[in-house]
Recover the amino acids of this structure.
C-alpha cells in the first residue's frame, strides 16, 4: 500500500503528521476559507469527517496521483467563486447516475463506501 505524508492542520497550529493510504482517497478539494488548512482530503469510510492539511491543492493532487478533476454541483447557491473543482479517485467510484427524470445537469458519483458527490454535466472522459 502506498502511504504518503502531509502536515495535518489543527487549530491552534501544531506539528502533526498525517499518513494516508493513497488507495483510500475518495476525493480532494481546496478547503473553504472558514476552515483550517489549504486542502481537504475525503477518505473511505470517514463519513462527514475530513482530513485538513496545510499543503496546497496542487501539491496534494500531484502527490496522490490518478485523480480526475470535476466541478462540484451545489443544490444551494454555489460559493462566491462559483463551482469548485474536486479531484476524484475513479477507482473508488462504484457507479455514476444522472439526475433523472430531470435533465442531467448534474450526476451522482456513488463511492464504494456508500457516500456520494454531485458533479456537473458533462462528465470528464475519464468517467
Amino acid at each position: 500500500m502506498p502511504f504518503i505524508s502531509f502536515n495535518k492542520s489543527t487549530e491552534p497550529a501544531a506539528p502533526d503528521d498525517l499518513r494516508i493510504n493513497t488507495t483510500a482517497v475518495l476525493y480532494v478539494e481546496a478547503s473553504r476559507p472558514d476552515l483550517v488548512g489549504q486542502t481537504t482530503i475525503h477518505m473511505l469510510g470517514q463519513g462527514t469527517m475530513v482530513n485538513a492539511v496545510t499543503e496546497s491543492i496542487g501539491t496534494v493532487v500531484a502527490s496522490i496521483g490518478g485523480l480526475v478533476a470535476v466541478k462540484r454541483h451545489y443544490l444551494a447557491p454555489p460559493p462566491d467563486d462559483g463551482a469548485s473543482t474536486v479531484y476524484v479517485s475513479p477507482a473508488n467510484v462504484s457507479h455514476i447516475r444522472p439526475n433523472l427524470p430531470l435533465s442531467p445537469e448534474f450526476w451522482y458519483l456513488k463511492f464504494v463506501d456508500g457516500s456520494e458527490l454531485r458533479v456537473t454535466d458533462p462528465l470528464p472522459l475519464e468517467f
Summary: DSSP finds one helix and ten strands in the chain. The first helix runs from residue 57 to 64. The mean pLDDT is 87. The two ends are 24 Å apart (CA to CA).
